[in-house]
Amino acid sequence: MPTKIREIKAAKRQRQQEKKKTQQSSNKKISQAMKKAPGDVTAQVSLQPALKFNGGGHVNHSIFWTNLSANGGGEPNGELLEALKRDFGSFQAFKEKLTAFSVGVQGSGWGWLGYSKDSNRLQITACANQDPLQGTTGLIPLLGIDVWEHAYYLQYKNVRPDYLKAIWNVINWDNVSERYQACKKK
Fold this sequence. Notes:
3-stranded antiparallel beta sheet, alpha+beta
């Protein structure tokens, strides 16, 4: 089997294992947090940071894993491509802007392409830590790029720009397009 195919299959297995661990961990922590505070509003409010972090981590990673594909890369097509051109000037300008936002995240967080129902436009932003895009900005998440070091350290060490250059080769544009179509219908 050619080396590239083995690498892709190994990376896919690793992503699936990481996804499962992240979901299990987040679900367990959220469940534990909610059991501690049934009916106690003060305790529930005190749990908000844990819920935001662990719940946000679950939401963000659930999107992230579907945004990636070993068969990804290239450019989107159809309405998504047209919207990217409309809102950013070109597909290349969009990539450069999202990459710049993602590189600029201080510490850990996420770079996002989101949809604003208010303006019917695509927007780029970044969120710190595990903050969920929709819950903190109101934007509907289409494409999330994890810029926590755990997402890239083994392969790219602490060179985030190299990771961000490479991630465009595995973006699942079909998934991003499906998300775009779905949020326009709501």
